């Protein structure tokens, strides 16, 4: 309806128009009554609560974003750990190959004594055959061939023979590579320890963040139980699912597995919201039942009051209904109604003996 209705003159307008106006007017009255009834059932809420709700919801969205960010950091650290483990494995294999090559074959010449059928003058210091088949090798106190003192020479039926052989010697270049590889592996292992400590730290922070988000959800539900807080979580889960699909196309199996772990964190929150919503639905159902009973009582009371039929039987029936109303749904409002009915019966209606016993029982 609009203000044009007030420009209509009932005396001059056609009957059809007036019928339509009357119908619209009655419709408006019903709508206004429903509106006022609904408003009367609502609890008074301080407008400051809406500001608190807005602040908490902004904080809720921010915490979800921080949770996602922390999960991304955790994923990056786990990828780094995987990469370092691969590097350490490769470096260990390479070091093992270097270990096999740390010795090399080298030709070495050495002197051995071989027997002869004749005497020889040989030097014990320089392995020199100073004079074969002869004992005259000295010139004074020193040898003419090697210049060593005569005391270092012997006369025997042997002579020195030069021989070559291959021997294993340390390859110093390989040894340097092995030492470097060992140092690099130790460094990588230290890095792994640091990364694992970071992962443990991030996982604890994520668990703490989940608890903080759950507390926020409960606080917001206390202010506005009808709002669907799961939508924000659904959005985060949708983004993660899209990332999984994109990485699956790239066949990045490892990253897909890590994103699935992140997705589980948000599924846990979603499950918490769903369970909380189910619990609140039960509470809301109790309130709805109470409101229905309230409207029923008011409707019957109004009708009987108008028709002057407020008899004792009706009051007693209503009292019985209130008394046997489910205890978990028996609010202060119902208790107040019950008390008023009881007072009305005792004050204004003469009750017969039979009914007196019923009231005494209800008391």
Automatic annotation (TrEMBL):
Keywords carried by this UniProt record: Coiled coil
UniProt entry tagged with the keyword Coiled coil: yes
Coiled coil: 50-77, 178-219
Domain of life the protein comes from: Eukaryota
Classification via PANTHER family: AIG1-TYPE G DOMAIN-CONTAINING PROTEIN, G DOMAIN-CONTAINING PROTEIN
Protein name: Uncharacterized protein
Species whose genome carries this gene: Reticulomyxa filosa
């Amino acid at each position: 309806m609009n203000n044009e209705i007030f420009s209509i003159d009932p005396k001059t307008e056609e009957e059809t128009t007036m019928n339509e106006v009357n119908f619209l007017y009655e419709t408006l009255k019903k709508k206004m009554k429903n509106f006022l009834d609904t408003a009367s059932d609502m609890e008074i809420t301080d407008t400051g609560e809406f500001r608190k709700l807005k602040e908490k919801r902004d904080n809720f969205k921010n915490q979800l974003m921080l949770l996602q960010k922390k999960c991304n950091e955790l994923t990056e650290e786990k990828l780094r750990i995987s990469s370092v483990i691969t590097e350490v494995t490769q470096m260990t294999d390479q070091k093992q190959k270097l270990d096999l090559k740390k010795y090399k074959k080298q030709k070495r010449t050495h002197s051995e004594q071989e027997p002869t059928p004749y005497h020889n003058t040989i030097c014990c210091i320089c392995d020199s055959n100073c004079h074969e088949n002869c004992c005259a090798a000295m010139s004074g106190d020193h040898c003419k061939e090697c210049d060593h003192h005569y005391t270092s020479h012997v006369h025997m039926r042997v002579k020195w023979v030069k021989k070559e052989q291959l021997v294993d010697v340390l390859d110093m270049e390989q040894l340097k590579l092995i030492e470097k590889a060992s140092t690099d592996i130790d460094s990588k292992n230290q890095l792994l320890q640091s990364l694992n400590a970071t992962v443990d730290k991030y996982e604890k922070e994520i668990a703490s963040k989940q608890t903080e988000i759950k507390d926020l959800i409960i606080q917001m539900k206390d202010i506005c139980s009808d709002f669907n807080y799961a939508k924000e979580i659904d959005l985060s889960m949708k983004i993660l699912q899209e990332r999984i699909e994109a990485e699956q196309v790239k066949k990045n199996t490892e990253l897909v597995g890590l994103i699935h772990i992140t997705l589980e964190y948000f599924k846990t929150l979603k499950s918490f919201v769903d369970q909380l919503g189910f619990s609140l639905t039960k509470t809301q159902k109790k309130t709805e039942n109470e409101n229905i009973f309230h409207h029923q009582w008011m409707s019957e009371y109004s009708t009987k009051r108008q028709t002057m039929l407020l008899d004792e039987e009706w009051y007693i029936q209503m009292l019985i209904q209130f008394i046997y109303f489910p205890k978990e749904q028996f609010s202060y409002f119902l208790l107040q109604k019950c008390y008023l009915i009881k007072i009305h019966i005792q004050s204004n209606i003469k009750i017969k003996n039979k009914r007196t016993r019923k009231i005494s029982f209800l008391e």
